[in-house]
Amino acid sequence: MVSLKVLSLLTLLGITTAQNATLRYMPFGDSITEITCWRSLLWEKLQTTEWASVNFVGSGKNENNCKDTKYDRDNEGHSGFLAIDIANKNQLDGWLKTNPADVITMHLGTNDFVQQNKPVADVITAFTKLVGTMRTHNPKMKIVVAQIIPMGIGSYNTKIQQLNAQIPTWAAGLNKTESPIWVVDQYTGFSGSSDLRDGVHPNASGDQKMMNVWYPGLLMALAAAKADQGTTTAVKFIA
Ligand SMILES: *[C@@H]1O[C@H](CO)[C@@H](O)[C@H](O)[C@H]1NC(C)=O
Ligand SMILES: *[C@@H]1O[C@H](CO)[C@@H](O)[C@H](O)[C@H]1NC(C)=O
Ligand SMILES: *[C@@H]1O[C@H](CO)[C@@H](O)[C@H](O)[C@H]1NC(C)=O
């Protein structure tokens, strides 16, 4: 029989180890996630916090010549991809199988409108499937979803605004205590003329704005993921 003293020591060790386990964060999206520099700015900002050890994960390492040799470039940004296609082809399933995550940010929908003028409702349906995939892989996935940035070209912002307007209600409807969804607004305050380098992708000013908007959402998600790790392991050791 294990003595009470040993048992509580084991519990203590369990909690301590779990709280220091590395959290895995997947930046998920299209080219606005892949060939940009907000991930570099975000990583650099995290280095000054308790979240310095967070592991960025994903199958790609592309960026936009960010001139930052230190940051963790791993990401799941896929240039040109539609939310609808990623959902229909079950691509996120494979990506999360290869790179499991505790926390994920999603900025998607731009290509659905810019490339194929898809209906807003179909993008929302795709989002629902993607959230389902995230939770199949990790029932406690902490999810941050962006209301997406405006375009500086064409008249795509009408549909982008319609999508963005629907995201908060959609997210609230899927919200779960163990797998919260936080919505961050990447549209408001982002200029289609002075924050984009080519009418589509953020320049230095846009990258900075995107990082500033992701940051508080990501911190909430990381804190929730860390809190989980403590309780899960503690329960395991006590049982
Ligand atoms: C674990 O994290 C705590 C603070 O969260 C810190 O005090 C402790 O030194 C860390 N332990 C290890 C082994 O890194
Ligand atoms: C989801 O729930 C969390 C609390 O667990 C809350 O902070 C967040 O704002 C909710 N998200 C939405 C979209 O209502
Ligand atoms: C961003 O790009 C726009 C033109 O696309 C330009 O007006 C602006 O000065 C640029 N800002 C930065 C910080 O690169």
Automatic annotation (TrEMBL):
Family annotation (Gene3D superfamilies): SGNH hydrolase
Protein name per Swiss-Prot or TrEMBL: SGNH hydrolase-type esterase domain-containing protein
Limits of the SGNH hydrolase-type esterase domain: 28-208
Signal peptide: 1-18
Keyword field: Signal
Entry-linked InterPro entries: Ester_Hydrolysis_Enzymes (IPR051532), SGNH_hydro (IPR013830), SGNH_hydro_sf (IPR036514)
Pfam family, one: Lipase_GDSL_2
GO molecular function: phosphatidylcholine lysophospholipase activity
Domain of life, per lineage: Eukaryota
Phylogenetic classification of the source organism: Eukaryota, Fungi, Dikarya, Ascomycota, Pezizomycotina
